[in-house]
Amino acid sequence: MLSKVSLKKGRMDWVIPASAAALLFIGTLAVFSSVGVLPNYERIIRTHLIAMPIALIFFSVAWSLNYQVYQDQWKFVYGLSLAVLAGVLLFGVADKGAKSWYRLPFFSVQPSELARIGLIVALANYLDRRGGRIREFGGSLGAMLIALPFFLLLMKQPDFSAILTTFPVVLAMIFCAGGGVSHIAIILGYAAVSALFPILWTLLSLNPELVRNPLLDFFHGLSSFGWDTLIFVAGVAVLAWAAWFLSVKLYSNISGVFFTGAALVIILGFFSGMMVKNQMKEYQQKRLEVFLSPESDPRGAGYNVIQARIAMGSGGVLGKGVFSGTQSRLGFVPERHTDFILAVIGEEMGFIGTGFVMTLYLMLLYRLRCVAQLARDRFGYLLCCGIFSLYLVYFLINFGMLLGFAPVAGVPLPLLSYGGSNMVATFFALGVAESVYSRRYAFV
Amino acid sequence: MRAVTPVPERLEILWTLAWAAGLLFLLRLTGIQVLQSSHYRELAEKNRTQVIAQSAPRGRIISSDGELIAASKPSFTLVYFPGAEVQASYADRLAEALAGPLGTKQEDLRSSLRRAVTRETPARIAENLSVSAMFAISGLKNIYSGIDVITEARRHYPFGAYLSHLVGYMGKMDSREWARYGASGGYGFDSRVGKTGLERMYEKELRGKPGGIFMEVDSRGRLSRILESRKWVPGADIRLTVDSKVQTAAEEGLRSSPSGRGAVVALDPRNGAVLAFASSPGYDPNAFVSYSDEEFPRQAEKIPEFNVAVQGTYPPGSIFKIISAAALLESGKMTPSEKVFCPGYYDAGSRVFKCWERKGHGRMDFLDGLAHSCDVYYYTAGLRAGPLAIERKAREFGIGRPTGIRLPDEKAGNLFGPTRRATRKSYWFVGDTLNLSIGQGETLVTPAQMAVMMAAVASRGSLWKPHYLDRMVSHDGRVLLSRSPELRGEVRLAGSTWDLIWEALRKTVEEGTGRPARINGAEVYGKTGTAQTPHGKDHAWFVAFARMPGAEPEVAVAVLVEHGEHGSSAAGPIARKVMEAAMRETLPRKAPAPAVPVPAPAIPFSAPATPLSAPALTVPAPAIPFSVPATPLSAPALTVPSPAAPVPAPAIPFSVPAAPLSAPALPVPSPAAPVPAPAGAAAPQDAPAEVRAAAQPAGPEEAAAYEAGGEPAGEAE
Known about the structure:
A: 3 strands; B: alpha+beta; five-stranded antiparallel β-sheet; 29 helices
C-alpha cells in the first residue's frame, strides 16, 4: 500500500477531499433537516452556505502553499494564534456564557478553531527541532509549555470543549514524536489532578446536600487557602512517604523517585487546580457546571443522550428519510445540528447513513496516516500526526458519547456538524495535509 | 536537510486505536439501529404522540320492556395541556383558582398540575365534574390557558340498586385485569372495567372502541399537528329478558319484607327466560363510578357480593312437598282420594314427628294435604312412596345440580336421599324419610333452583336452563349474540299427575296457605314453605306460577325471605306482586295494574323511547371543546370554537333530563290512557328496530342536528 501510493506522482490525494466532501454533503443535509423548524434557521443555513466557499478557498491556499513555510514562520503563526485567542477576550462577544466569538458583519468567527491548527504547527516545529532529545522529560515538558498559553486563554473564555479536544492532541503529538510514555503519563496525571479538583468542587457546589458529609465538607473547604491546605499537603506527603516505606519493607524494587513524583504531581495538580478554581469568574463556573451536568435539564439525568439514542435506534436500517425524522425535527434531540448531528443522521438515514459516515471518517483518518508516513520531513510527519489525532479525538469523543462509551460532552463532529469556523479550520487542516502530500518528494 | 526520523510505530498505534474503536462503534450501532430498532421506534412514537383518549359510550343494558338499566351519560373531564407558561408558579395559581369550583383540596390539584407541568404532558385533572363546576371552569378558561373541559361518556345506572348482582358494577382495573385487557388495546390505566356480573362477562362487547385525539407534539409538549381524531364506536347493547316492572315488583317486595333479605327469581315457564332476578342485599353500582383509585378498594370491600338467589342454600321446607307429591302419585302407592288422619303428630316409633298444625288437620286427602301443607299426610306418603322415589324425583327436578344460569359461583345445593347416604357409606333411617318428604333434613336448595322447579311444574316437565340475556346488538344493528331457550332436562310425569299437582297448588292459593298470592282474573298456583333454621326465625318460601284461565302459564316465581317466618304472609304478597306485574298485559283492564308504586327511578323510564335522550348519550366529536394553549402552531391546526363557545353547547344535554320529563313520563298513571305502561315503554316490544334507531346514541349528525334544532319539547310529543 505504502509503496503503491508513493509511486503515484499525483499532486493531490483525492480520497481526502472526496470523503470530506461526502461527509460535508451528508452533514449539510442533516443540518438543514434538523434546523428546519428552528426559529433562526435562515441564519444558520446562510452561515453554513457562506462557510463552504471560504472553506474551499482555505483548502486550496493551504494545499498550494508549501507547508514548510509554517516551520520557517512558526513564531509568527504561534504569535498570531495566541493573539487571536487573546483578542477574543477583549473584542469578542459572548454566546451561551463563553466569550469565544468575533462578530463580523455577516457572520461570527470562533478563533479557537483556527488557533488550534496554529498550535499544531508550533508544536510540530518544536518537536521537530527537539529531535532525539524528545525522549528526555524536558522535551515533553517543553511541548506542554508551548501549549500552556493556549489552555489558559481557552480557560479564560471559557471553552472547555476546545480544551477537551486539544489536550489529547498535544499528548498524541508528543507520543508520535517519540516522547517517553512515562512522561506523558505524568503530564496526564498532573492534568487529571488539576482538572479533577475544580470539577469535584463544582460538583459539590451543584449538590449542596453532600457537603453535610464531614469528609466532603473538608474537601470542599480545600478550594480556598487556609489551614486545610497545609493539612492536605502534609497528608499527601505523609501518605507518599508511608507508601514508599511500605514498599521498601516489602523489598519491592520501586524507586523512591516514583513516590516523590506521585506526591509532587498530586500536590502541584492540587495547587494549579485551586488556582484555576479561584481564577474562574462566576459565569465561567456556570459554564463548567453546564458542561459537567447537561442533565441539569428538568427531565432528569441522561435525557439528552437517551433521546439521541432513541433517535438513532428509531431510524433502523434505512432511516425515516431525510427531512422526516420526528425525534430531531420535533426537538427531542438536543443540540441536534451541532453536537448530536450523528443522531439526526442515524434517524433520517438509518444504519446505512451512520455506517457510511463512520466508514468515510475512518477512510479520512487512514489517508491522513498514509500522508504522515509519506511526508518528506519530520515536520510534515508531525503536522499530519497532529491533524490525524485531532480528528481521531473528535471521532472518538463524539461517537463514543452518542453510543454510550464516553460521558456527555459538548463536542461537535467536524465536517458534519453545523459550525462555519470549524468547517473552515477543518478544510484548512486538510489542505495542509494535502500540501504535505503533494510535496512528499525531496527536491534537493 | 534534517533526517526524516519518523516513528511510524507510534502513529500505527494511534491508527489501530482508531479502527478498533470504529469496529466497536459499528457493533454498538448494529445493536442500536438494527437489533433494537423496533424498541426505539416505539419509544420515538410515544415521544411524539399524545393521546387524549375519550371513552366510548358503553353498551346499554336494556330490560325486555325497553327500560335502561345501565346507560351512559355525558360526563365532563377537566384536562390540562401544559403550554407556554410552564412554570410551577403558574400551576400553583391555577390550582388555587380551580380548588374552589372543583371542591377539592388545593394541594392535590397543585401536585397533579405540577406533575403535568414538569413532565410536559397533558393530564386529566378532575373527572365527572358537576354542572356548576363545569360552568365555573368554563369561565376560568378565558383567564387561564391550558385548561379545558372535554366531554366523555360515563356509566350510569338509572335505577340505582336494581338487578345489581346480575348487572354488576364497574371500577378501575387491578393488575390482573390489566394483564387480561391491557394488551388488547384501547385500555388506559385509568379505564374502568366491569368488575362483576354482565359488566364483566361482556366487558369487551360492551366497551366499544374508545376514540381519541392523536396529536403530534414537540419536545416541549406543544401541539405541532393533529395526526388523527378518531371517533369512538359505541359498545353493543345488551337486551335482557328481565322485565323492569317485574323486577321493580321483586325489588320493592324484598325491600319491604320483614328482614329485607332474600331473593326473588321469576321465570317464564314457556322458555326459561328470567323475568326478575332480585337478590337482597344488593348495591347501587352508581356508587363506584365516582370513586377514585384510593377509595375504590375500600368501597368495593363493602359490597354485598353474596348473591342470595344462586349462592344462598336453604332447606326448601314445605315447597318440597310438590316433589314428594309427584313421587307419591307416580308410585301409585296411594290414591289421591285416600285420606290420612292428622292428629298433629306422627309417631314413628322411636320418635314423634310433629305437624306444623299442632291441633291437627283431621282427615286429609291428596288435595287437602298439599293445600294445607299437612306434614302428617306427607310423612305417610313419604313412607309409602319410599325415599328412593322421592330422591329420584328430586333429582329429576334439578335438586343438587346448579341451574346453569350464567352467574358466577352458583351453588348446587344438596340432594338428600338414601342413594347419597349409601355413597357416603352411611345408614338411612325412617326419620330421614320423614324429614325428606317434608323438605327438611339435609336437602338444600337455592331460590333459583326452586324457580326452575316451579317453571317445570308450570310447563309440565320442561326443566329450563334459565337465561337472562335476550340478545346483544351492536351499535350498527347487528345481532352479535342471541340466547335461545335451552332445556336442561325433562320431568316425565303422567298427565294425571300433573293435573292433580296443579289442582292441589290451585287449591293452596284459593283456600289453603297460599291465599295472599291470589290474583283476581288469573289462575294462580302456588305453595308456601317455611324452612326451619337454627340461626333464628324460619325462612319463608313461596313458589308459584300463574296463567290466564285456559292459557299457558306465563310466569313462575320463587320467593325466599330470610327469617320471614311464614311463607304465606312474608313471601306470598311478593310473589303476587311479581306475577301481577308479569301478567299486566294479559290481565283484565279493570285490575289496577300498577299496584307497584312507580318510584323515583321512573324518571329515566322514558329515556330510551324518545329520541330526546339521544344527545344526552352522545358525545359529538366536533363539539369537543379542545383548545391547546396558544402556540403559533396550534392556531391554524385546530378549528376549535373559541373558549367561550363550548359553554352553552354541553349545557344542552344537561337540560334534557330535567325539562321534558313531565311530557312523556306523566301519562303513566293517567286514567284517560288505560294502557298500563306508557306507550313509549311498550314500543320496543312491537317495533324493536325503530326503537333501537331512535334510542341509539350513535349518530353524531343526529346529535348535531338535534343541537341545532334546539327545542327538545317538539319531539317529545
